[in-house]
Design a protein that fits this description.
single chain, 199 residues, alpha+beta, six-stranded antiparallel beta barrel, 30% helix, globular
Length: 199
């Protein structure tokens, strides 16, 4: 799916985070995936997917076990899939202003309800590099209920991949690791645990 195609729409919104419902026919963005919401003019918000959830459209009804394989379910009960929805929650970590500058801070306004959510291409992720101020937000103000170290692993892995993985990602990963080391007050054991899980 091209990065320019919407993957869903904002259904809850604040300056700190937003929730998007993912369209049925697209790949669900993974935990730690960067997404963007483009507003009017040249503005945009950048968020990191910190939670992915699939459940019933109706909050009063829960999905129940059917005892069918995916193929059997599609053949015998195709309507079941239409009763489910997938949502993602993204922590807002940066914004692009009308002058085109990317700022690693909360935006002045939240995204509008029903704004389109798109995946961030590698060049957008590379624009969020040094000084890696968004890492401070993740460490000091994480999404409640989300293991922050696991989210740090996912975001570092995405930085590494956006810079070419084995062919150029190491330098970006080292720079991000240095910034993270300062934020973790030189807790080397914690930093090593995070970095071991990146590659």
């Amino acid at each position: 799916m091209p990065d320019s195609d919407p993957l869903g729409e904002v259904i809850e919104s604040s300056t700190r985070q937003f929730v998007a419902e993912v369209y049925e026919d697209v790949d669900v963005p993974a935990f730690g995936h960067w997404v963007r919401v483009e507003g009017g003019g040249e503005t945009a918000l950048y968020g990191l997917v910190s939670h992915v959830e699939t459940g019933s459209y109706d909050g009063n009804r829960q999905a129940v076990a059917l005892g069918l394989s995916a193929e059997e379910r599609a053949e015998e009960m195709p309507m079941v899939q239409e009763l489910l929805r997938t949502t993602v929650r993204a922590q807002v970590l940066a914004c692009r202003d009308r002058d085109g500058r990317v700022r690693q801070t909360l935006p002045p306004h939240p995204p509008d309800i029903h704004d389109f959510v798109r995946s961030c291409p590698d060049e957008h992720i590379r624009a969020l590099d040094a000084p890696f101020d968004f890492l401070r937000t993740l460490v000091e103000h994480p999404d409640p209920g989300v293991p922050v170290d696991d989210l740090l692993v996912a975001v570092l892995r995405r930085i590494y991949d956006a810079h070419g993985g084995e062919h150029g990602g190491r330098d970006a990963l080292v720079a991000a690791g240095r910034a993270l080391s300062r934020l973790l007050d030189d807790d080397h054991e914690r930093l090593q645990s995070i970095l071991r899980r990146v590659l």
